[in-house]
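Re-run with default settings, no changes from the original entry. Doing this only to confirm the output is reproducible before filing.
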Amino acid sequence: MKLNLLTSIILSSTLIGCANTPSQLTNNQHSIKLQEAGRYQSNIFDQSAAEIVTFDKLTQQTFVVNAQSGQIDVIDSHNIDAPTLVKHLDIKADIKQHFNAQAGAANSVDVYNGLLAVAIEAKTKTDAGWVAFYNTQDLSFISAHYVGALPDMLTFTPNGKQLVVAIEAEPSEGNYAIDPEGEIAIIDIKWENQTLSSKLTRLTFTDFNQGAARHHELPPNLLLNGYQASIAQDIEPEYIAINQDSSKAYVALQENNAIAIVDLATKSIQRIMPLGFKDHLAAGNEIDGNDKDKKALLNKEALLGMYQPDTIATVKLNNIDYLISANEGDDRSDWISDLSQAECEAGHFYYHLKDKNCSDDIKLKDAFSAKVYQPQLTAATLDLSNFKKGGSQQSTVKHIKFSHSLTAQHGDLDGDGKIDRLLTFGGRSFSIWDIDNSKMIFDSGSDFERITAQKYGNNFNQTHNKLKAENRSAKKGPEPEALTTGTINGKTYAFIGLERMGGIMVYDISQPKQARFVQYLNNRDMTVNPKDNKQKNAQGVTTYQVDAGDLGPEGFKFVSAEDSPSGTPILIVGNEVSGSTRFYRVMTNQ
């Protein structure tokens, strides 16, 4: 069949993911090993009480985002075997005192040379939030900047001269009634003698809107499915990584499956790089998409995985800047649930007839049920005949969840009106990208599911807050989210956290095209059901009394031996479900 231009672009993107051989799973002699040290326990269950973490080498303190409280927990980390709470920094109270405004959740934290920066959203998340600054020496409030709606992540440049902020700007829940524009904030920093001067620049994506000067620069397979959204509204910056010489910022546009490259000297968006799709029919990219068979069974499937990374990081190897991505996946269903059927279908989503709400993620079996899926508009109906009995893809797992709107846009590969592939959320992997050449050079393929299946058998692909075998198989699998890198004895390693199943994957990425699996460590106790945590404290918050281990790794911080309180490299992990901050020694094999 003749391929149209869009199909060619999709296939070329897909082939990037096909060309990589999954890493070897053999556990030969490796150069490092994670070893558990102590943990700080907030005693709060499933309330994001330990999300993003950072470490101040001047005071040997760890700062932990206790998100829903609007606070930062300050932990004395001199002894990583027995970390202790120093203080709760009440960011909400400081915003109220200095701005007479209501703040919401704290989202991110970073530190440079004794200057602490915290991103905090407004109580109404579609309103402008703040970046607040503190002195780590005495934990005093210094100042704050208004920034755009929902500042979700921030990071200092390696030289400490700038702070870069991802302004996610999610719409209001249910109906997109308010949809702010995504932005990138760049704050110039001068921090001397404990005195701060700063200047804010806000970068928008409005030049990429329909009819605007740079609209023609948008790549054809950039994923766009925001309800009645402009390009600037559709783009939602999620995470930022800065290269070693502080010249470039790489911004994860998670829902859009892309990376924005920012020149920090000119403070301008250079370009947007789409990440393409992962071909799950290719050898090495098998997945388990069946959450009902109670079997750890990985198969080739007629799916295109949207990488949609959350956390990203950069490394410089052999004089080349590489981007590392944790391919979590995300959808927009929370923001469209209250739309009417007519509004829903106009946005190319689908109306769930049983649940009576609008959604985007749909199971293939439900798309075959007239009790669930019966669009009023012919144009809003997917032709899934290839996936029915007698079709070319009839063996595709029927429980898999996929994006209705993006499958409609990108799933017909040959232009005949029939869907050939279903677009699924996340890559269930981590990837290494040569950014300058817009090319993936490594993907871990099906490693994460194979490794966890070897360890847990049919109990793999659990979620993080209860015991239920294969709960995540039809959705995003192990859901890699947290990520950081570290260099030890001349070798560079990637540490990847599996948000749902739990635990940390370690890879040697010193040779990025041949990255090697090193270790998987998970202290989750599979004999304990986290759902049994029902006891509440005086504030009505569920406490973590039934200890199933560290659950829901959300944020990582690698600390070099030079800066570490233990004299060895350490990894600090914020676990959002168990509310615990865990310290690990990174031991070297002699």
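Confidence is low (pLDDT under 50) at residues 1-22. The chain has seven helices and 35 strands.
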